Amino acid sequence: MKHRIVILGAGYAGLSAAGRVARRLHRDDASITLVNADPDFVERVRLHQLAAGQDLPARPLSDLLAGTGVVLRVARVTAIDADRRTVTVTGADGADELPYDTLVHALGSASTDHDVPGVAEHAHELASRAGALRLRQRLADLAPGGRVVVVGGGLTGIEAVTEIAEARGDLDVALAVRGGLGDWLSPAGQRHLRRVLARLGVTVHERTGVTAVRATEVVTGGGATIPADVTVWTAGFAVNPLAAAAGLEVTAQGRVVVDGTMRSVSHPDVYAVGDAAQAEGPLGNPLRMSCASGIPMGWQAADSLAARLTGGRLPRTPLAYVHQCISLGRRDAIIQLVTADDQARRPAPGGALAARYKEMICAGAAWTAAHPLPYPVRRRRVTAAAASPALGRP
């Protein structure tokens, strides 16, 4: 009987894991099912471009998975039963139950309003393709002089506000930041960021927490208001709650706690990767939510799962960072060099060359997710002992 591997989510991490484990195991020994709510691979790192009016190429998952042996199931995951080892999914044909021997949880994260009043009713999010398309239409309908406020000073907020300001120079664009602008960047990175925002005409409200969103304004912690015909909310992300509901050990934020092989510390037949998982870097630092973390986590999970099934050697590759690449519109960017544990180093080159490098990184991330490294050429056979559902050995 084939060992049944079910992978939930086809983002950067899930797609990377699916393609890579398919290249590591013999097809006669393992079946791999990839469940995703959307039939296409969504380049989440480019959703701010989509919202600003640019067209992104379609990437059907059926095309990306062709020839891999991975079965695509277009459906929404509605429940995980870790005791019975089943997943409930709902698709065009209704609800169904998928049994598994090994589960890879890669359902990622979505925008969260942190219980701020009015966000759900009046703000736009950029954590999904549907949200980006809704924002795209709203911006297209906005007349010159319209007021746009982006809430959140992280990578998503900075990339969104610069993209919108560059694409629509006729709008009044502002950024509300709870702390200091780019305060995680090196001084060189902060200076470049401020120069670009000034050039694009973006008004920056630093140390400004937003306590409510209304139809035509946002309310700050001090009771002041900032006019806003369109509010873009990038001030937080939350993971899918299904893992916690299934009884897996999770952090306070709901991320599955995993070991260095991306296996759940509470359920050895479950792996978790990407935003859904809490993994540690080489110095004990938690890996941040990003495709820079998700793709290597997907590789690590695939290699670990294949090693356990075939009696091979477990990977011991530490997951470390090199840089943060931040787009500032289509013609500028910052490449913030960082330490292995993601702390800013002094160099932070910016400008047109950095923008081209950032574009190469984004294109490379999409290509890598769809084309996992193809070694070893020979797919390995699953051992009889490892094929057992009780895959609890170290």
From TrEMBL:
Domain FAD/NAD(P)-binding stretches: 4-302
GO molecular function per UniProt: NAD(P)H dehydrogenase (quinone) activity
Keywords: FAD, Flavoprotein, Oxidoreductase
Gene3D superfamilies cross-referenced by the UniProt entry: 3.50.50.100
InterPro entries: FAD/NAD-bd_sf, FAD/NAD-binding_dom, NADH-Q_oxidoreductase
One BP annotation, GO: aerobic electron transport chain
Coiled coil: none
Cofactor(s) needed for function: FAD
Family: Belongs to the NADH dehydrogenase family.
Protein name: NADH dehydrogenase, FAD-containing subunit
Organism: Promicromonospora thailandica
Organism ancestry: Bacteria, Bacillati, Actinomycetota, Actinomycetes, Micrococcales
